[in-house]
Write a structure and sequence with these properties.
5-stranded antiparallel β-sheet, mainly beta, Methylamine Dehydrogenase, Chain H, disordered N terminus
Length: 351
């Protein structure tokens, strides 16, 4: 795969009478990403959504149609799958409990899974079309964000009991958790805002506009510097202060974005874009964000996760044939997926 260095970060030497740059701005030039390997998965279902990682068990969970495929991160091999998950969107992991939680959008349920056997233990009712899903450590709760239900269903991870239903102002997307602030941040896609949820009271305590960003899907967080990264449909990444909601910086990204991730070890923020690129931005300082690479991937690779231990990113993708002609009403029809082409692309800075 090709990759392009779009913009490098420049560093200025201090001169007499001038203040030295802040410590955060004196980092080394960020590494360049390239294709490391591809993990074949196969199948003929042309639908997938979130990827998620279990760093303790060194596992990657990949949603695909009605299943979650399980990959060993040590040798990049498929080691199992969890079937019978209608319209699965996301998979959250509670490592200490040995439980996983799948948001089954077509069933309006969350499936509770035994991570050792990969068997479904029970199914919990949610709002309409659960999509994003988040495990909140310390509280041992799982948040299922219901796309059409405009709500979040909060589930006790140990028992599967629904402990709260939180109304939201619109369609929720990705969410992240700040353990120090005890807050969950959730993109509300159709309202161009971020909902701030108190993890103690299960209440929305603030709504922050993301302008000039519009229709944000992916969301990532830099816990150390209190920064949120929202990737938006109008092709920009917005960096916000997670304490005040202030927009402090924006950078351009590729089109068709879906997921966002932040790597605290490299201070890099990633946006995976359906056009077939990943935009990589460097948080030079808490007030400065700079694009350092546009990584070419595959035209269908818009969902992503990150392993902060190895600094590798993982994207789901498949190949597609030619689109059939429009139907009798003139509506465009989707191109067929090439059977067996579903795979995970792995990118990193070395072998």
């Amino acid at each position: 795969m090709k990759y392009a260095l779009v913009l490098s970060v420049l560093f200025l030497l201090p001169v007499a009478g001038c203040a030295s740059p802040p410590a955060d701005a004196t980092q080394a030039v960020p590494p360049t990403y390239q294709l490391i390997t591809e993990i074949p998965i196969g199948g003929d279902v042309a639908s997938w959504d979130y990827l998620s990682e279990d760093l303790e068990a060194r596992r990657l969970y990949v949603t695909n149609g009605t299943r979650v495929v399980v990959i060993n991160l040590e040798d990049n091999t498929v080691v199992g799958e969890i079937p019978d998950l209608p319209g699965v969107h996301g998979f959250a992991v509670a490592p200490g409990l040995g439980r996983g939680f799948a948001s089954d959008g077509r069933e309006n349920k969350v499936a509770v899974v035994d991570l050792n056997t990969l068997k479904v233990l029970t199914r919990v009712d949610t709002g309409d079309n659960p999509d994003g899903i988040l495990y909140v450590p310390g509280f041992d709760e799982v948040y299922a964000f219901n796309g059409r239900g405009h709500s979040a269903t909060v589930i006790a991870a140990a028992t599967g009991e629904v402990v709260a239903t939180i109304p939201l102002s619109g369609k929720p997307e990705f969410a992240v958790f700040d353990p120090q602030a005890k807050r969950i941040y959730n993109n509300i896609e159709d309202q161009n805002e971020i909902a701030v949820i108190d993890a103690v009271t299960h209440e929305v305590v603030a709504s922050w506009p993301i302008a000039p960003g519009e229709a944000a899907s992916g969301l990532a967080i830099d816990l150390e510097h209190h920064r949120l990264f929202a990737v938006c449909e109008n092709d920009i990444m917005v960096m916000l202060d997670s304490q005040t909601g202030e927009v402090v910086a924006t950078v351009p990204i590729g089109s068709g974005t879906d997921a966002a991730r932040f790597d605290p070890g490299t201070q890099l923020a990633f946006s995976s874009n359906g056009e077939g690129t990943v935009t990589i931005a460097h948080e030079v300082s808490p007030s400065q964000l700079t694009v350092v690479q546009t990584l070419e991937t595959a035209s269908s690779a818009r969902t992503m996760t990150l392993d902060p231990t190895t600094h590798r990113i993982y994207l789901s993708a498949a190949d597609f044939g030619e689109a059939p002609p429009p139907d009798s009403t003139g509506a465009r029809r989707r191109a067929p997926m090439v059977p067996g082409s579903f795979r995970v692309l792995v990118y990193g800075t070395g072998n």
